[in-house]
Design brief:
The chain is α/β, with parallel strands linked by helices. It folds into 4 domains: 124 residues, Rossmann fold, CATH 3.40.50; 162 residues, Rossmann fold (3-Layer(aba) Sandwich); 75 residues, Helicase, Ruva Protein, domain 3 (Orthogonal Bundle), CATH 1.10.8.60; 57 residues, no CATH class. It is 46% helix and 12% strand. The protein has a 5-stranded parallel beta sheet, sandwiched between helices. The protein is globular and about 80 Å long. 32% of the residues are buried.
């Protein structure tokens, strides 16, 4: 399906607004009009346009003020300023601030269409490039998600490293796949690996490959994922869980564009775009020394932060209906939808497990319903079942770690040296663990020995 470019036209002169709107529609653009800056920003909340055309001189909020607010809300959205009082100094000033183009009234038709075509080409939104299949797996009507998808489309053409951050279950791999499909690497492999799911030696072998005899059990040569993804994209999920020793090797690959398999003396050139993801706070990880700062800046050329599902509640009914259709086709075609009360309950839920939890709830409802329309009571039952369900291995391990650390700190009354000895860790590693779980040893000391109290001993 071809994408029809949407132009937001802003002018307080209603006659010119109508005339320009007709001119743009004659070129088959979709046109949204606004008679003030405030009205334009309200339109922006409902639907993100591909280009904004705004008059410079308007009451209350002029074109440049509108431009600055647009850039704050939707960075990268091209804005073309129109004015009957154009001057070279105004044009230079506007373009230096980031305005895409500056046109003087009366507007020349060819000049106007030329500026719009250039803006669309720059953002990849042109009608000739309008295949939307790249984002087909991401179901949304959220303005925040639409803004992220627009950034993802622009980033995809730049071929830079991208870090996708966000809570577990928010769709980070789907976003990575979308970036790959929107790039010139789309016809090459997309390879994914979870960096927290494998022991260190196995992860090293999977990423970089190994030579025959490199370690016990290496009975043949093994091609690593960097080679398997050559020409395409490599998705490193949960990059924050990668051991420090492997972070050094990954950094070298990114710097040299060469990979040396484990046990080999020969480096192999690789052409791979790296997209990484994490739910961890990497700034905190850099502070506690568990993540390398130089690697962070290599991976985080562009950061896309996916919001939790509770911040895009308007997407819940849309996603639920889409997931139900998929589940019904696979398991029970007689199921047709949710009752209005059931949808309201879904939309009002907190979704700590994000989209992944919603998938599980919908699957349960489809499996257990005896009627074509899923009632509220069944959704409520599925939500309770999800709350009592087994956590993922990563979540369970993190929960155990925190409980264990709290226990040894209580036993030792906040004495880090003793606690580290019990845990079988050196003090540096133990402090890193405490930082990862936001635990402060001083909080476990007896009241009389805390810094704020007088030590009477």
């Amino acid at each position: 399906m071809k994408h029809v470019a949407n132009i937001l036209l802003v002018d307080d002169d209603t006659s010119l607004l109508k005339l320009l709107g007709m001119r743009l529609e004659s070129r088959n653009f979709q046109v949204t009009t606004a008679r003030s800056g405030a009205e334009a920003l309200a339109c922006l909340e409902k639907q993100r346009p591909d280009v904004v055309l705004s008059d410079l001189y308007m009451d209350e909020m002029d074109g440049l003020e509108l431009f600055h607010e647009i850039q704050r809300r939707t960075p990268g959205l091209p804005v073309i300023i129109l004015t009957a009082h154009g001057s070279i100094s105004e044009a230079v000033s506007a373009t230096r601030r980031g305005v895409f183009s500056f046109l003087t009234k009366p507007i020349d038709r060819d000049e106007l269409f030329g500026a719009i075509d250039e803006a669309l080409a720059q953002t990849g939104s042109g009608q000739a490039q309008g295949d939307e299949s790249w984002r087909g797996e991401i179901i949304t009507r959220s303005p925040e998600m639409e803004r992220l998808l627009e950034q993802a489309r622009m980033v995809a053409t730049a071929d830079v490293s991208v870090l996708v951050s966000g809570p577990s279950g928010s769709g980070k791999e789907l976003m990575a796949r979308a970036i790959h499909r929107a790039s010139h690497r789309a016809d090459k492999p997309f390879v994914a690996i979870n960096c927290g799911a494998l022991p260190e030696q196995l992860l090293e072998s999977e990423l970089f490959g190994h030579a025959r005899g490199a370690f016990t059990g290496a009975i043949s040569q093994h091609e690593g994922l960097f080679q398997a993804a050559s020409g395409g994209s490599l998705f490193l999920d949960e990059i924050g869980d990668m051991p420090l020793s492997l972070q050094v090797k990954l950094l070298r690959v990114l710097q040299e564009h060469q990979v040396r398999p484990l046990g080999s003396t020969t480096s192999i050139p690789v052409d791979v775009r790296v997209i990484s993801a994490t739910h961890r706070d990497l700034d905190r990880a850099m502070e506690d020394g568990s993540f390398r700062e130089d690697l962070y800046y290599r991976l985080n050329v562009v950061n896309l932060r996916l919001p939790p599902l509770k911040e895009r509640a308007e997407d819940v009914p849309l996603l639920a209906k889409h997931l139900l259709d998929q589940a019904a086709r696979r398991h029970k075609p007689s199921v047709k939808g949710f009752s209005p009360e059931a949808l309201n309950l879904l939309a009002a839920s907190a979704w700590p497990g994000n989209v992944r939890q919603l998938v599980n709830v919908v699957e349960q409802c489809v499996a257990l319903t005896s009627t074509p329309i899923i009632p509220e009571a069944l959704v409520s039952q599925a939500l309770v079942a999800e709350e009592n369900a087994l956590p993922s291995f990563s979540d369970a391990r993190a929960g155990f770690e925190r409980s264990y650390l709290v226990k040894v700190l209580k036993i030792t009354e906040g004495n880090v040296t003793q606690a580290a000895r019990i845990a079988g860790r050196n003090r540096t590693d133990f402090y890193k663990l405490l930082g990862r779980h936001d635990l402060e040893p001083g909080e476990f000391k007896p009241a009389a020995s805390r810094p704020s109290a007088v030590d009477s001993r």
